[in-house]
Write a structure and sequence with these properties.
The chain contains 6 helices and 6 strands, in the order E-E-E-E-H-H-H-H-H-E-E-H. By secondary structure, the protein is of the alpha+beta class. The protein folds into 3 domains: 49 residues, no CATH class; 31 residues; 60 residues, no CATH class. The strands form 3 sheets. Strands 1-2 form a two-stranded antiparallel sheet. Strands 3-4 form a two-stranded antiparallel ribbon. Strands 5-6 form a two-stranded antiparallel sheet. Strand 1 and strand 2 form a beta hairpin. Helix 3 packs across helix 4. The radius of gyration is 23 Å and the shape is elongated. The N and C termini lie far apart (48 Å). 7% of the residues are buried.
């Protein structure tokens, strides 16, 4: 039995995550208290702020240049390509069509910005795209989600 440092309740060791650095081999907080902490708004705000910090970006850059980072990125890309073949095919078909002049790149349909990218409502129709600048494209997906794969 162990007492949680957050809720002060005595609970069995099975209610605590393992931690090899602790003397007894378990976390100080029980799993439920730790879960509440990890999902709290203050913790989420801290994580967002940290991910925008210079030290995070430097550590990410160093990691991505390491062999482990390169291997991780390659594995992630491979998984994405296997899972999203239809999306990738649609994106490539748009690139080729724009390059050949078959499809003409238009300004953003929301703000008129010349720097627009193609948005597919249906990946089975690869040359049917809506032109949105990056901020409006991201806003569209925040509101509507990413749709069916």
């Amino acid at each position: 039995m162990k007492i949680c440092t957050k809720c002060r309740e005595e609970k069995p060791f099975s209610e605590f995550s393992k931690n090899c650095r602790a003397k007894d081999g378990h976390q100080h907080e029980c799993k439920s208290c730790n879960s509440e902490y990890c999902t709290s708004e203050s913790r989420k705000a801290y994580r967002r702020k940290y991910k925008q910090s210079k030290e995070y970006k430097i550590s990410q850059s160093k990691y991505m240049q390491s062999e482990a980072g390169k291997l991780s990125a390659a594995l992630s890309n491979k998984k994405y390509k296997l899972k999203n073949k239809e999306k990738i095919t649609a994106h490539r078909r748009v690139q080729v069509a724009v390059g050949k002049g078959v499809l003409i790149k238009e300004p953003c349909e929301v703000c008129g910005s010349d720097n627009a990218e193609g948005h597919h409502d249906d990946y089975r129709k690869p040359l049917e795209v809506r032109w949105l600048c990056r901020p409006h494209h991201a806003e569209y997906h925040r509101q509507k989600g990413y749709g069916e794969d």
